[in-house]
Amino acid sequence: MRRLTIPLVLLGLVAAFVLVFGSRLYQMVPAGHVAVATLFGSVRAEAYPEGLHVPVNPLYQWYLYDVREKSHKEVANIPSQDQLQTELDVSVQYRLSGKDAPRVLQQTGTAEQVLEIHLIPKLRSILREQGKAVKRAEDFFLEETQTQLQSSLQEGMREYLEPKGVIVEAVLIRDIRLPPFIVKAIEAKKEREQEVEKQRAELERFRTEQEQKVAAAQAERRAAEEQASRQRVLAEARAFEIERVNQAIGENPGYLRLQALEALQSIAKDPAAKVYFLNGDSPTPLPLMHLGDDLRPVRP
User: What is the C-alpha separation between 261 and 267, in angstroms, rounded?
Assistant: First the structure.
């Protein structure tokens, strides 16, 4: 009886232990998380990755850390050198380092405490410091200013947060809002520039039209000059021809009589032609009609 009593006692103790600590003999770590264990306030050096871990010390106290990438958005008023406040909307893409989770718990605390203690204050501080390097508020709209600001933010945040167990993936400038009166001034300036551009385009159109008119007038003038030149050449040729004829007539009077006889011969061949004999002393010619007609009397 005594031999059977001892195993039963041990079995009872084991059952009682399992009943009390059964759920603490294993630890399930969700996907995208790591677990950090503490024993009587002492942080275990190694983090537990996602998955099932069994057996584990049932006396461990567990802390879960989400190591997936997150985004923190921040809106801050940034003063520039002209003492004007510009509102910047930025976002920080970050994640906790799984292997550094025990150090995060030991030095800072939970993931929410990391955000409140390290990330947000440092981001605001860097934003204010970078704003001091900008001369005028409207310079925030310059591409080189935004590039420099984003690069400085990302570098500064990474350098500061990496030893804290936070990995900064990117810092993005989401929006920039200038003071209202500067926005109105910029809009007015833009309208003036558009009006000047419109007037410049109108002047260019007018200049083009005038050049086209001048070109057309020059073309017409050249055409008129060419026409006048052709007419002058024809007139000169005609005058030369007349001059040569007159010269030939003057040198040979018989040529004129020959031309007259040929003309009379042509007229005589035309039955409808009228022949005029002109007395040299009389200005009125005497028409003789139907020369050469049959003058025999008509028989009744």
Answer: 10
